[in-house]
């Protein structure tokens, strides 16, 4: 009887019902995303071979980091402010924060592209002396504004609760477009694949603009949003985003600096395969993040806790079987990229465990950033970035691929475990205790 009453109360909770339905929609899109990313990575690895694949993913990682810097932390802020404006039906304010955020990111990302393009030779010679890497990176740099802007559009639509369109823009259209381009016009060098990547990014950006103008509520005028408020909120988040890039990608960059392009390819494919376990995290966060902001705006801490705990339950339910496949059959999974890639089997297992801890801790980063605890997000990410760099410096020169995997997995896990502590301290509940 108690269980029946509990299930009844769940069906009566509109916020929880919206999260479950929205997460199911988001998860469907993320499954498509995970499949398309996996096939894209396999096709790239098969067509390019280990060495060229290493150059491709090394350049991909660098432009991903630079694009994250160019977003100025506004990709987190835009979710919060768009969601809050939508909840209070302040449509003029909603468009004001969207226009200002996107304009700032466009300017910043273009400036970074010009700066990076002017210093490609110096960067490669001093930090990534891989043969043939300079033309690959030079081509890839043109994608920086595209990545930065379509990410902003996706996050703005997340604030509108347009989950499917947000996830399509952020995670699906790019890999599908690149996959199709590689199949329709096969290329066998990283430089040529970079040109396909730019076309895929342009298609994704245009699609994101169409989705936004189709989804955003119409208004006759646009209310100017406070620049000081926007900058005050985004600054700590900006630093946190940059540091999170260090946590996620520093080991790959250190391999690029100190090891071979083949090892970069092995690590990159293993890491991106392990990250497929976190597709459920993105799917649930897409609906949960604006819900956190709205509930916090209303002062509904009990509702916030309920949504947070149930989001962890949903994620664990989906992610546990995927982790088991990666732990039991890593050699088989990595063989899809080519026989040489079996060397990354153990690295895949280590990275998958790190990603699983990421999921088991729940949406702690969004819980903190959507409730005004941006400083805690920054502090947690800073410590994790230090862990990633320190372990990378210690382990990668001696242990190469396995050292990179341990450094990344430890840093990812530590960041989220610190987030669990901060959520318990400031919001009064523990996301790890999801069974209660």
Outline the structure in words.
- With 436 residues, the chain is an all-alpha fold.
- Helix content is 84%, strand content 0%.
- It has helices at 2-12, 14-70, 74-87, 91-118, 120-127, 133-140, 144-159, 163-184, 190-215, 227-258, 261-274, 279-298, 301-328, 330-335, 345-360, 364-369, 374-427.
- Helix 6 (133-140) packs parallel to helix 9 (190-215), helix 7 runs parallel beside helix 9 and helix 11 (261-274) packs parallel to helix 15 (345-360).
**Overall mean pLDDT:** 82
Radius of gyration: 21 Å
Strand content: under 5%
How do the SSEs run, as a string of H and E? Answer: HHHHHHHHHHHHHHHHH
Q: Distance between the terminal alpha carbons, to the nearest Å?
A: 17 Å
Sheet with most strands: none
Topology, number of strands: 0
Structural class: mainly alpha
What general outline do the C-alpha atoms trace?
globular
Number of helices: 17
Low-confidence stretches: 1-11
**How much helicity do the residues have?**
over 70%
Mind sketching the topology for me?
Layout: H1 2-12, H2 14-70, H3 74-87, H4 91-118, H5 120-127, H6 133-140, H7 144-159, H8 163-184, H9 190-215, H10 227-258, H11 261-274, H12 279-298, H13 301-328, H14 330-335, H15 345-360, H16 364-369, H17 374-427
């Amino acid at each position: 009887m108690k269980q029946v009453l509990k299930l009844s109360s769940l069906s009566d909770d509109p916020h929880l019902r919206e999260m479950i339905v929205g997460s199911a929609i988001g998860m469907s899109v993320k499954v498509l995303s995970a499949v398309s990313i996996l096939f894209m990575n396999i096709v790239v690895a098969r067509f390019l071979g280990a060495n060229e694949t290493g150059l491709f993913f090394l350049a991909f990682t660098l432009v991903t980091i630079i694009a994250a810097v160019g977003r100025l932390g506004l990709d987190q802020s835009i979710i919060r402010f768009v969601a809050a404006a939508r909840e209070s039906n302040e449509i003029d304010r909603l468009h004001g924060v969207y226009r200002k955020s996107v304009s700032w990111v466009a300017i910043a990302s273009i400036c970074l592209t010009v700066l990076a393009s002017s210093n490609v030779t110096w960067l490669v010679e001093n930090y990534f002396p891989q043969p043939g890497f300079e033309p690959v990176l030079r081509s890839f740099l043109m994608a920086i504004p595209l990545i930065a802007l379509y990410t902003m559009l996706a996050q703005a639509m997340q604030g509108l609760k347009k989950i499917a369109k947000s996830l399509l823009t952020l995670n699906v259209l790019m890999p599908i477009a690149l996959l199709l381009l590689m199949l329709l016009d096969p290329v066998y060098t990283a430089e040529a694949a970079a040109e396909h990547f730019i076309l895929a990014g342009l298609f994704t950006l245009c699609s994101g603009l169409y989705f936004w103008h189709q989804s955003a509520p119409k208004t006759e005028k646009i209310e100017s949003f406070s620049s000081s408020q926007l900058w005050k909120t985004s600054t700590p988040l900006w630093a946190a985003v940059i540091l999170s890039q260090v946590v996620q990608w520093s080991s790959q960059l250190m391999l690029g600096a100190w090891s071979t392009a083949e090892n970069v390819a092995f690590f990159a494919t293993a890491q991106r395969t392990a990250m497929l376990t976190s597709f459920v995290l993105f799917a649930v966060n897409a609906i949960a993040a604006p819900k956190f902001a709205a509930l916090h705006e209303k002062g509904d801490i009990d509702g916030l806790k309920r949504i947070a705990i149930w989001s962890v339950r949903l994620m664990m339910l989906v992610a546990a079987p995927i982790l088991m496949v990666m732990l039991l059959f890593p050699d088989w999974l990595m063989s899809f990229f080519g026989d040489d890639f079996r060397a990354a089997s153990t690295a895949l297992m280590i990275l998958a465990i790190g990603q699983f801890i990421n999921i088991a801790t729940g949406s702690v980063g969004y819980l903190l950033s959507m409730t005004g605890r941006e400083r805690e997000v920054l502090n947690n990410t800073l410590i994790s970035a230090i862990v990633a760099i320190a372990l990378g410096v210690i382990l990668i020169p001696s242990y190469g691929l396995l050292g990179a995997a341990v450094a990344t997995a430890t840093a990812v896990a530590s960041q989220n475990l610190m987030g669990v502590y901060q959520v318990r301290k400031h919001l009064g509940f523990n996301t790890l205790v999801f069974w209660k």
